[in-house]
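Usage example:
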Amino acid sequence: SSSTLRKSMGVAQHHDAVSGTEKQHVADDYAERLYKGRAQCQELVGDVLGNLMQKNATVKPPQAVFCDYLNISVCPVTVDNQQFTITAYNPIARQVTTVVRIPVKGNYSITGPNGKMVTTQLQDVSEGTKQARRNRGNAPKELLFPITLPPLGFSTYIANSLPGAGSPPSNVQYKVFTPK
Amino acid sequence: ADETVENQFLSLTFDGSTGLLKSMTDKKSGRSMSVRQSFYWYTSSVGTEQDSQKSGAYIFRPAKQTPQDLFNGTSVGLKVVKGPVAVEVRQQFQPWLSQVIRLYNAKEFAEFEWTVGPIPIRDHLGKEIITRFDTDLKTNRTFYTDANGRQILERIRDHRADWQYSNTEPVSGNYYPINSRAFIKDPKMQLTVMTDRSQGGSSVQDGSLEIMIHRRTLADDNRGVGEPLNETGQFGDGLIIRGKHCVLLTSVNKAAVAHRILGEQLYMAPSLSFTKGVQDWA
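Running the assembly step on the lines above writes:
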């Protein structure tokens, strides 16, 4: 049932599904339906990416994971692994450059699809993020880096943990203003 | 001293005492605009003797027409983080309300990421939280919102093109849907706010643009839901909302190009996936 995105849908079109004009148990039902549709779409997109990557691969790539709470800096794959990859798909028909923010415990080097190192910025997560994620994650840092994606295509970036001693000095300045 | 952060396109100045945004400069045109950005709340109406209509899931009806400032009057505890990829300005308005303003390297917009909630209700008052940009633009009662992310429609305060408007609700009567963007402008400059979700907003005063970002009401509005809009969430104390507004300050003749391109990028943002380990296939 999840072989095409037309079948795997995570869309609720009644205005109640968007606006909050429904009873709470209906809201809960919408949330469950959207979650199921989203999970199916993620599985399908993960399969498609795996197939595309396999064209040049000698071994089957691992299953792609999507981090639903990335907006509050929660992503177990990036927090718990010394090495991981970030694959970004661009649905727009022109090249796009944007900035990715991922939660991490320590510093990482990021290698772009052309094999060159990418500029990164390692910083503490904000107090607002700590409050918002509650018990979902505890990564103390965020890693920011720019990515460039081809039209209607994807790029893969590789993250490698940098050991504490060999880690470059912080390139981030903090400045705190105290009220007068 | 005031603190200024900038990239190639924008310069933002924050009041060194309060930590609030004070001005924005479009570096291409060299034009500056005074702008105070803060958060406010309207008390949800529970009806009056004259009109029993309550604020609820369908209806936004504030009890008073002037919102209360969520800035505590002293400081938002400004913290600035500067790095090679982005500059962040972190503000804490309330224990349950914070904001990070970001300027990315070589990006034309300023990103305002707000985290709101759980909205406190111990005072038994429903609350409707807005973000508001107060500028010195001479907007002459006019502002603009989009219709389903496509056509931009001109809105004139206390006015309807099709019928004689009776101004019984000065604030909510001027609220319009914002699906992707809203803007205000004068003959030279335009302030455009791109939303990451459908919201409601208005320009209640000239030069001002407000957008509702979260609400929690304690009464049913009697339009069929039968429940107040009071979702308590997984932890039982109310929902925490995080969202973004991408703000453009450009000359009027360059504004449409900027917000059309950015709008497409926000609506069709890249999707990220992760795999652990790095193997030959990579």
